[in-house]
Amino acid sequence: MRRLAGGLVKLGIKPGDAVSIIGRNRPEWVTADFATMAAGAVLVPVYVTLLPKDIAYILANADVRVMIVDNEAQLAKVLEVRADLPKLEKIVLIDGNPPAGDAGVVRYIDVLESGTKTKQEDLAAIYGALRPNDLFTIIYTSGTTGPPKGVRLTHGNILWVLEAGHRVLNAKEGDEFVSFLPLCHVFERVGGLFAAVYAGIVVNFAQSLDTLIADIGEARPTILLTVPRMLEKAYQAALNRVENSSAFRRALFHWALSVGRQTGPYRLADKPLPAALQARYLLAKPPRLRKNQKALRRTAAFHGLRRRALSPEIAEFFSRPRYSHPRRLRHDRTLRAVHHQHARRLQDRHGRAPAARRRRADRGRRRDSRPRAVRFRRLP
Predict the structure, then answer these.
(1) Topology, domain 2-148
(2) What are phi and psi of 98, to 5 degrees?
């Protein structure tokens, strides 16, 4: 990260300048994000699915001076519109070789090498001069209702979200994420990357959406950040698989699902199950399901509410009760997270949380929440 930050400084990047990146989730994306911050610059992430004209609009609107691209395919899109971007000075290519004779395109490894010549004291001075009100990033909307609009977020904006989100996620050392949503989206970038750094936990990068289930099985994350659409697709895939099975398996599945739904009110109220319902629940859990639940142990899925909420039917399907005593049902973090959209119901008429909840929140604030070391790994 320090070498790339120094390399950006060597390319002429000054505090407040805009640096953009387009590429899939990978460790170099993470390095570029933190290196841009260390150089005092502003990162402008771009979706890999955008057309050249849309990329040109964002780069021109944000006055981007340096563009970091993932591979030659993304490079070709930027080169197609480079003539319309007079402020774009350099393009940094991570994978591949720059076009012959094009001094405006440089290799990522060459930028890293040049960064070794930058004094660490100079970088420390740049980073130390940053203030909460300084611009941190510009996130552009999808542009479905017109030209993309840039949302300007400061360092203070991000820190506030991290401090508040840490109390919700309750992440700690030993927890692990699997990152599969695009890092250029603010939800994954803040919740799946910055929150991991804040809590000092491991981030595993999924190879692709096609291998996501296998990657989750290998990494066994304790926290999974997702969006309603992904859970809906997984839910529909499960139903399709059941419908293609035998009549006995279909009947068994729907009976077990109905038993699970009957336990919902008891889970929400944190009450023990009646003896008859507990017996049906234990019968509805075949050995294979118990083995999978043991493997997933503390996995909690937190979904981001964007334009629509997660349906109660799907929330019930993915919620997973766990017992610490045969008659004691512990509240699952998945269910708590799913129902955080109804948090207003928990507030009193003065707009404050009930006193018991305020006391628990105060205890959480007193815990040590200083940033710790974080490591990243990519699944093979």
Answers:
(1) Rossmann fold (3.40.50)
(2) -65, 155
Least Cα distance to 330 among 264, 270, 265 occurs for: 270
CA atoms within 13 A on the CB side of 216: 18
Domain coordinates of the chain in residue numbers? 2-148, 186-378
Tokens of 40: 């005092």
How many CB atoms sit inside 10 A of residue 13's CB?
A: 24
Query: For residue 218, with 0-12 CB atoms within 10 Å meaning exposed, 13-18 middle and 19 or more buried, which class applies?
Result: middle
CA 290 to chain centre: 28
- SS3 state at 269: helix
Q: Quick: pLDDT tens for 301-345.
A: 455 544 456 777 777 777 654 433 333 323 333 333 333 333 333
d(CA 344, CA 351): 8
Tell me the three state secondary structure of residue 47.
Answer: coil
* Residue 332, φ and ψ in degrees, nearest 5: -85, 140
